[in-house]
Each structure stands twice: as structure tokens, then as C-alpha cells.
Design a protein that fits this description.
The protein has 215 residues and is an alpha/beta fold. It is built from ten helices and five strands; from the N terminus they run βαβαβαβαβαααααα.
Length: 215
């Protein structure tokens, strides 16, 4: 199956670079390009791609608002200059399945598109550390932490480890359980917390007060 992708970035060179790589890739096809968030929303509705690679900073409607409007139809991967952008948390909260950094190798970006198209989230340990920094820089919330009444004690432990960026294999090793059991716990958490992927689980862990970042 060919993964149909829309590229949304106001930098033509970024779009051109990705298109050049995709041209020689049999399983990924760029079906549309957008230079603004508004164009990205319209193209997604018209073309129904599996994945939208979305920049955050674009003229007019930004990538965060565009992401919020299209995640019911397509999975979104944010493409950003992470060091310059403090909106990553907001983008993930809007429903993005992960994010890429613009200085990544193009082949790595294609791999990430495949991961997201398969229904998984792109959240590596290094990414998680940067997210923790984002949380640490934010004021303490005035609203009470989100309650997780349906989550068991073991699932709490797993949720914390997911928020630290551990893979299922690493969670299994840490908790001395089988890989299958770890995978089942993560699946249960996704269902109970109505989270679409691991990125949303990380956000939930912080909103519930299970993780307390320190600057």
C-alpha cells in the first residue's frame, strides 16, 4: 500500500527536498503541497492523505490550528525547528502523532512517516527529554490534575515509563514482565484514557501529575 502524504511548509526548499527523496521511494507518494495552514486543511479534506507533514510556523493559520482541524481525517507529523519553537506541546495536544526536526536526514523523515502511517507515534527518548523541558518551562497549572480512576497501579507504573520515553521492551525489562504484558498494558492505557497514541499518553501523564519536571 502506498502512503499518501501532503507536505505543509512555507519553505519551498523543504518541500522540494522531501519530494526529491519520495520520488525514488515506492511506498510513499506526495499527493499535495501547501504553503499555509489553510491550504493544508483544504488539501487534506480534498485528498484524504494518510499522513500530513506539517510545519508549525506558517503565514495565516499556523500548523497547530491546522492540525487541530484535520486529525480526525489524517495523521499529522509536525516538522519544526525544535530549538526555535516553543509550541511543540500545543501541537501534540492538538492531536499530532509526533514531530520531526528539520535537520534530520531525509531518509529518517521518510521512516518516521511510515511509522506514523502504521498507526504508531513518533516519540523517541530524546524527544521526550525536550518535551520535559517544555513542561518545566511552563507555569504550574491552576486546575486540578486529571484523575485516572480507571487506571490500575501497574498501569500507573507503565504510564510513567511511557512518559519517560521507554519502549515496550524497555518497560518490560524495567518492571520484570514479558514484552507481551508490557504491550498489553500500553494498549489498555490507550483505551482507558482515550489516547490515540503514545504521545497523548505522555501528555496525560503530565496533566495527571504523575510526572513533575524540574527545570
Amino acid at each position: 500500500m502506498t502512503i499518501r502524504v501532503v507536505l505543509a511548509d512555507d519553505q519551498p526548499l523543504i518541500r522540494a527536498g522531501l519530494c526529491m527523496v519520495v520520488t525514488g521511494t515506492p511506498d510513499i507518494e506526495v499527493v499535495g503541497e501547501a504553503g499555509t495552514g489553510t491550504e493544508a486543511v483544504q488539501l487534506t479534506r480534498d485528498l484524504r492523505p494518510e499522513v500530513v507533514v506539517m510545519d508549525i510556523r506558517m503565514p495565516g493559520m499556523n500548523g497547530i490550528e491546522a492540525t487541530r482541524m484535520i486529525t480526525a481525517e489524517s495523521r499529522v507529523v509536525i516538522l519544526t525547528t525544535f530549538d526555535d519553537d516553543n509550541n511543540v506541546y500545543a501541537a501534540l495536544r492538538a492531536g499530532a502523532s509526533g514531530f520531526l526536526v528539520k535537520d534530520m536526514a531525509l531518509d529518517d523523515i521518510l521512516t518516521a512517516v511510515r511509522v506514523v502511517a502504521a498507526g504508531n507515534a513518533l516519540i523517541a527518548p530524546t524527544v521526550t527529554r525536550r518535551l520535559i523541558e517544555e513542561f518545566a518551562a511552563r507555569p504550574q497549572p491552576t486546575s486540578p490534575p486529571r484523575k485516572l480512576d480507571a487506571v490500575t497501579e501497574r498501569e500507573h507504573q507503565v504510564l510513567v515509563l511511557v512518559a519517560r520515553g521507554l519502549s515496550n521492551h524497555e518497560i518490560a525489562t524495567h518492571l520484570h514482565i514479558s514484552h507481551g504484558t508490557a504491550k498489553a498494558h500500553v494498549a489498555n492505557l490507550l483505551t482507558k484514557l482515550a489516547a490515540r497514541d503514545r504521545v497523548q499518553l505522555v501528555i496525560t501523564a503530565y496533566e495527571a501529575g504523575l510526572m513533575t519536571p524540574t527545570p
